[in-house]
């Protein structure tokens, strides 16, 4: 089941990349860690040319849609792992700097997990909400690449119990096309 899910997710992600190259223009690679001793990796594609504008009272952030494939494992039992496909709209606010800007980013989206537990964490449903917040820094004025540091929480919002959720701190390298 895990292999079918991973293969299907990879096919969906790659077909999205091929069919919408006019809109999609960033890729990110992420390493993540949880205080529950889970570690993982993520690859994501960001569609940044979204023709929508946020209401002015929110400070006019830029919007993008982030689609990713996550894989985590229990550091105490490496045979225990979980994979998730995620999609989230994300708002990005420029908060400092011009040559090497710093952004605050936040979003709430959805995810589909291939199973409902990792280690001692019970999720109950394969569908989980993804809540995220991060800082994104363009570390070089000669490159548009950025480093993101963030926090993500996965939960089913008590649709079904138990709802232990998962929490991750992560570091990403983001490369625009």
From TrEMBL:
Residues 1-24 form the signal peptide. It comes from the Bacteria. The keyword Signal applies. This is Acyloxyacyl hydrolase. Keywords: Signal. InterPro entries: Lipid-A_deacylase-rel, OMP/PagP_B-barrel.
């Amino acid at each position: 089941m895990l292999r079918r899910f991973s293969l299907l997710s990879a096919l969906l992600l790659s077909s999205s990349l091929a069919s919408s190259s006019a809109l999609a223009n960033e890729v990110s690679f992420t390493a993540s860690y949880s205080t529950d001793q889970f570690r993982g990796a993520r690859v994501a594609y960001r569609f940044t040319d979204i023709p929508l504008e946020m209401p002015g009272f929110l400070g006019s952030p830029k919007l993008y849609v982030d689609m990713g494939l996550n894989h985590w494992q229990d550091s105490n039992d490496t045979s225990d792992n979980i994979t998730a496909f995620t999609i989230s709209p994300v708002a990005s606010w420029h908060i400092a700097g011009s040559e090497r800007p710093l952004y605050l980013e936040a979003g709430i989206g959805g995810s589909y997990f291939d199973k409902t537990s990792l280690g001692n964490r019970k999720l109950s449903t394969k569908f989980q909400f993804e809540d995220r917040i991060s800082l994104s820094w363009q570390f070089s004025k000669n490159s548009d690449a950025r480093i993101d540091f963030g926090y993500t929480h996965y939960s089913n919002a008590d649709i079904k119990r138990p709802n232990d959720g998962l929490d991750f701190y992560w570091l990403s390298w983001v490369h625009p096309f």
